[in-house]
Write the structure tokens for this entry.
Amino acid sequence: MSGRGDVPARRSCSMDTLSIMEMADMFDFLRRHFGGTRAVRHRTEQARPGVQLLASVLVCFPEIQAVSYEPHSGLLTMDFVLRGTVPEDEMEAFAEFLAESIETYQGLEGGMASEMEFTYEHHEGLMMLHLARRMDEVTEREIGLTVQLLTDRFGEALLVDAHGADVPDAEFRQMQHDALDRMLTAVREMPLRDRLVGIRERDQVVVYNR
């Protein structure tokens, strides 16, 4: 497994603790970051497995601010946002810890963790973390483990979407996670062909065809 530790920091900050200006800036940044894409909104297109899968990742994990898939590399990239700064040596140590944790988890589950890329970048007081994993290896439980490790390490610095975090029905929430797990299993048999990216826009999840 290869892990790249160019990583920034963030603290799990619920959206309702952010100012309106801060949230607007973050949404604008996400749009610029994924510029030149076409929104997939048509009802028939919404049935496409790739669109459903990326949307489900964002719905199930409010800590993930954006997610993208590149068919040529087969990588699913999950983007997290932190407020503040984390020293580079601490980020590299966390990247190594995360890589070891994922590899250990997959080993226990009989899976694989042949590739992981963990990078980061700074954006006007915010830091964006990018975690890329092979789509044919990642599982819903692995994503859950990753989110938990990020939360444990960065706490209140990690941004969390308030709309996604506030789901009172535990049974419904579990159904969403089970559905995501089935979709991730299905794409191993029928790999996705489209370059897709999903982001949050206020209280909505939007998937774009790149």
